[in-house]
Amino acid sequence: MSRHNPGGGYGHHARKITTDTWEISWMFDRYYTGSRLRYPQHMSRITDRAGAERFVRKWGLVFRSDGRCAQ
Fold first, then answer.
1. Is 0.85 surpassed by the pTM of this model?
2. Rounded to whole angstroms, how far apart are CA atoms 13 and 36?
3. What is the dihedral of CA 53, 57, 59, 61, to 10 degrees?
4. Fewer CB in a 10 Å sphere around the end CB: N or C, the chain?
């Protein structure tokens, strides 16, 4: 495994908050000069259904019946 993840992120999730609001989230690793350690960072955004569908399609997730997405 290389030090820098070429995929840009991992742990992608999307979950339904209300009927038309979704939260998308993902993790990525941050590195500092001279350090061999990785610092995982978590990002999340609130979006509409169209944005969630684009996110799910891009990262190959599958919509589940309970309003969450899984890899």
1. no
2. 28
3. 80
4. N
- Kindly give, in sequence order, each residue whose CB lies less than 8 Å from that of residue 61, ignoring residues fewer than 6 positions away: 12, 13, 14, 55, 69, 70, 71
Instruction: Give the pairing type, strands 62-63 and 69-70.
Output: antiparallel
Nearest to 4 by CA among 33, 28, 24: 28
Compute the chain's Rg from CA coordinates.
Answer: 14
Per-residue pLDDT of the chain (71 residues; tens, 9 = 90+): 456 656 678 889 999 999 889 999 999 988 888 888 888 999 999 999 999 999 999 998 887 767 777 66
Identify the CA nearest to 61 among candidates 2, 19, 9: 9
